[in-house]
Design goal:
CATH superfamily of the largest domain: Naphthalene 1,2-dioxygenase Alpha Subunit, Chain A, domain 1
Number of helices: 12
Largest sheet: 8 strands, antiparallel
Oligomer: single chain
Bound molecules: FE2/S2 (inorganic) cluster, fe (ii) ion
CATH topology of the largest domain: Naphthalene 1,2-dioxygenase Alpha Subunit, Chain A, domain 1
Radius of gyration: 23 Å
Structural class: alpha+beta
Shape: globular
Length: 425
């Protein structure tokens, strides 16, 4: 496969730990993965009205995303055509024009240059034209999820998402109302390689160990303590995308599966939602939608967690040993205030900065990275379920799928594993 992956295709699958610490490899990942892959940027619901904009760093570059008068979306680099200063310093707002704070060049809502102070000094009557617009960035969306692409690629967003689209559909089919991002976001950084987080997002094996504190807490609320051992499946969906799905969960599901975690008063509306799902989709798909937790990983850096709360997490490496993370909560437009509160409570109690889940994962991922940094030898093991051919959520086929795609992207690697690694193996 690659210099970093050791497998016989049947019984073992290991990844050389140099893959998590090499600075050269990190730079190649930026060029060959992040600059050539569709990256999640925003959700349609964040840009509702004409003129609504938000600024956001995506894939290491600062962008302006703005809703146009015709309903389409404009995506531009947030960098002035004159000397590159950041044109907009607001995080979000509504405007018809952006004026650069450096020398005052002004752009309209399509990113076109419309004003240059002391323009006559350039001596070129045609200087102020569309050639001097903000640099446009290719973008596309699937069911409200907006992705951008920096490099030239013949692969459309639909082709890139491939088999993951079925699971985006499964998550979004829980309501006929549109998904909406809950205002606010949770930003943090982890001193670990970004691929550790990619693995962790679809790793069900660790739950009863790394998060046992949370499971004990659930027990105290009267939830079913055996539920986290219920069956599920893990799948590599192609193109590096991955899924874990299991249930029914002890935490319940705010959409249509009540648990003691929710107020008793929500029971009737939650049960009514399930009946509605059965009416729309039949019993089997209704149960898949309502009674299973899902974590969907979209290569290379997006996780949609449809668990107790619905959240969208994206991340980007800052070096071989650091990753920045942003998490948004989401819900559906037809939810009552009480249902929305249950979703937010679910999000904050597990994924939030002081939640039960995130601090556990951060601490453990940083400990993995520390081990790789001072002893970047040997391999991390992803063989679980391979020999048996099983695809349980607690197996690792979904992680192997990520690494196969990573390896394919970096094929022809000029970077070789260190001598130390070769000796250790
Ligand atoms: S850098 Fe923007 S006007 Fe000069
Ligand atoms: Fe975790």
């Amino acid at each position: 496969m690659s210099d970093y992956i050791q497998t016989d295709g049947a019984s073992f699958f290991r990844v050389g730990r140099q893959a998590y610490v090499s600075a050269e490899l990190y730079r190649r990942e930026l060029n060959e993965i992040f600059d050539r892959t569709w990256l999640y940027a925003a959700h349609d619901s964040e840009l509702r009205e004409a003129g609504d904009f938000l600024t956001r760093e995506v894939g290491g570059r600062e962008l302006i995303l703005q809703r146009q008068a015709d309903g389409s979306l404009g995506v531009y680099l947030n960098a002035c055509a004159h000397r590159g200063a950041r044109v907009c310093n607001e995080r979000a707002g509504n405007t018809q024009r952006f004026t650069c704070p450096y020398h005052g060049w002004t752009y309209d809502g399509q990113g076109a240059l419309i004003g240059v102070p002391d323009r006559s000094a350039y001596g070129l009557p045609g200087h102020c034209d569309l050639q001097q617009s903000l640099i446009r960035v290719r973008h596309d969306s699937y069911r409200g999820f907006v992705f951008i692409l920096y490099g030239r690629s013949a692969v459309s967003l639909a082709q890139h998402l491939g088999g993951a689209r079925d699971y985006i559909d499964l998550i979004l089919d829980q309501s006929e109302a549109p998904l909406e991002i809950i205002p606010g976001a949770f930003d943090h950084a982890i001193k670990a390689n970004w691929k550790l987080l990619a693995e962790n997002g679809v790793d069900a094996y660790h739950l009863p160990f790394a998060h046992k504190r949370y499971l004990k807490y659930l027990d105290t609320l009267g939830t079913d303590p055996a539920s986290h051992r219920r069956s599920g499946r893990g799948e590599a969906l192609g193109n590096g995308h991955a899924l874990i799905m299991s249930g029914p969960p002890s935490t319940g599901r705010p959409i249509a599966y009540w648990s003691p975690l929710f107020p008793e008063a929500l029971k009737p509306s939650i049960e009514a939602k399930f009946d509605e799902l059965v009416r729309r989709f039949g019993q089997a798909r209704a149960e898949e939608i309502a009674h299973t937790n899902k974590s969907l990983f979209i290569f290379p850096n997006l996780v949609i967690n449809d668990i107790l709360g619905l959240n969208i997490r994206t991340f980007f490496p800052r070096g071989a040993d650091q990753v920045s993370v942003t998490v948004w909560g989401a819900g559906f437009a037809d939810e009552s205030a009480e249902e929305r509160a249950a979703r937010i409570n679910g999000l904050i109690s597990f994924i939030g900065p002081g939640g039960f889940g995130t601090p556990d994962d951060v601490e453990i991922l940083e400990s993995c990275q520390r081990a790789y940094a001072h002893a970047a030898i040997g391999y991390s093991d992803f063989s679980r379920g391979l020999l048996a051919g099983s695809r349980r959520h607690v197996d690792e086929e979904q992680n192997r799928g990520f690494w196969r795609e990573w390896s394919r992207r970096l094929e022809g690697a000029s970077v070789r594993p260190s001598q130390a690694l070769a000796i250790a193996v």
